[in-house]
Every structure is written in C-alpha cells, then in structure tokens.
C-alpha cells in the first residue's frame, strides 16, 4: 500500500532508525505499535491539558458514542476500562460464583485470565494444545461441558492467540457459543483482531449483534492504536452483561483526560490505522522471508508478532540477542524452544534478520 503526502501529513511518520544500544534496546518483546501515536493524537493530548483540572464526564460520554460508531453498536453495549487487564479481571469476577466456578482455557495462551482466576480462588482447568500449538476447541468444549454439570464455567479464549499468533476456527467457535451451553460464560479476548488478514476470521462481536448474552468480547487500545502506555481498553457485550461487569470496575467515568483525547482522535483517524496495519504487514514479510531462507519453522502470523521454532532452548538465544541490544519475547511454556518476536518497523526487522543470519553463521541457531 502506498501512502501519499496528504496521508503522511496526518499520521505519525515512521521513526528514524538508529542501531539499538544498551540504553535504548530494540523492543521486540511487548507487541507494541512501533509507529507510535498519530500526530492527531499527540495534538489532542496537548489540547486536553486545558481540561486537566476537570473530571472527564463529558469526554467519557463522547468517546463511547465514537467507539459505538466504530464498533457498529450502541454505547450501552460498551464499557471502558483501564487497559484490557481491568476488563479481564472484571469479567472473570462478574461471572464467578464463589466456590462453584471453574476457569477453562488452553495451556498455551495469554496468562492474565488464569492469573485473575487464581487470585479469586477459582480452580483452573487447562486443555492441551492441538497440532502446531493450535487451540483445541473440541477438547475445550468437552471439558467445559463436563465441568458445567456441577459448576459454573468461564471459558477464556484469546483470538488471535498470544503467543502463537494463530486464529481459531470461526465456525466451530460460533457454533459452540450459539448452543448456549448450560452454566457457561465465554470471555473472548480480541486484542490483536485488527491485524488479521485471514478472511475466514470473524469477531465474536457478530454474535453480540445477533443478541447472544453468554459472552463478552474484550478489546484494547494498546496494540494497533499505539496506546500501550496510556491504558485504555473496553468490553463489548449485551447491555445486561455490561451492567454486570461494570459492578466490578472502579469508575468508568474516572478516565484520564489525555488518554480519552488520544483515543478519540485515533478512532477517527482511518489513515493512521491503515498505515499501522500496512507497516506491520511489511515488517512481517521481511521477517518471514528470512525465516524461510534459514529454514526456521514458524506458525502463521495473524498479529503483530511471530512465533518461531528455534529448535534450541530459548534462553541462550534471548541472552545473545540481548547482548546485541535486542529484546525478544519471554518464555512461554510448554513451548520451551519457541520464540515470540514482536514486529518492529521495517528497518528494525531488517536489522533483526541480519542478526539472525549472523547467528546462523555462528551456529547459534
């Protein structure tokens, strides 16, 4: 995709590349948007300082209307949270019946949901992964059904999944949710959905539009919106579900003025979102070409990171990359020889793949 001067004037320019140093390492570890905030968001933040002494009641109402338009829904279907972490916590706690709930999830996925369950003394039940670290929906469904005979069940699915970067079968997932299984509530974490290229992917938000009330879809401004440091997420569900979850957040109206201003600006900035995705696609292409050249296996990537099979333990590789001032993803057991690499700018990925080639020459990988 080409971007002309008019677009470049309204969105963030790609950061100028400089080789990483010990004081400023290359961060290929947190799945952030390396493009940074749009110029419009930066301007909105500056302007928001004039409201810093005021509570953001009006701004919360305004962004919910803007967000509803973006999502194709109504404000009553949405709940703002301090990052998606609060949405995960509140959703789990809202559907926890103390002493009578179990938490069911795949063994290789984002850990926040299970961490919240454990802090709330909810037993967690894991399901082993399928081939190529895929989420085994059939096994999840079987386990959930068994547990639901005597317990309330919370099913947590990250789609696209982290750290694998793969998606589940939409039809199988939708078919399961549509059966409205007894005593079962679904939490669908779609933090990375905006990066997906596979046309078979559909957001579970479609089921909410159809009237299903046994699920919540969680979203974040931390990824494609480039606002990881500003902490804003939201839950999307039927109004009754939103009301239940809202009982477990602090105050939706007590958001940060600067964060609300930036998010409102970026929701309106289609050019920035398009450029962010296009840059991510280009960075992925650079990395995958080198992985193919070096015959390093990897899973199909539908996010802003790639999960690759080093065929050797992760720690020595990560330590050597750190010596080169490049930080890669943390360990994700049981995939102990796999490495999650976040996608930086195209220039950053060119630098990274050169280091990969050097590592191959040295026999490190």
TrEMBL record:
Coiled coil stretches, renumbered: none
Protein origin, superkingdom: Bacteria
InterPro entries cross-referenced by the UniProt entry: Aminotransferase_I/II_large, HistidinolP_aminotransfase, PyrdxlP-dep_Trfase, PyrdxlP-dep_Trfase_major, PyrdxlP-dep_Trfase_small
Positions of the Aminotransferase class I/classII large domain: 24-356
Example of a GO MF term: transaminase activity
Keyword Transferase applies: yes
Keyword annotations from UniProtKB, A to Z: Aminotransferase, Pyridoxal phosphate, Transferase
One Pfam family matching this protein: Aminotran_1_2
Stated family: Belongs to the class-II pyridoxal-phosphate-dependent aminotransferase family. Histidinol-phosphate aminotransferase subfamily.
Protein name: Histidinol phosphate aminotransferase
Organism listed in the record: Turicimonas muris
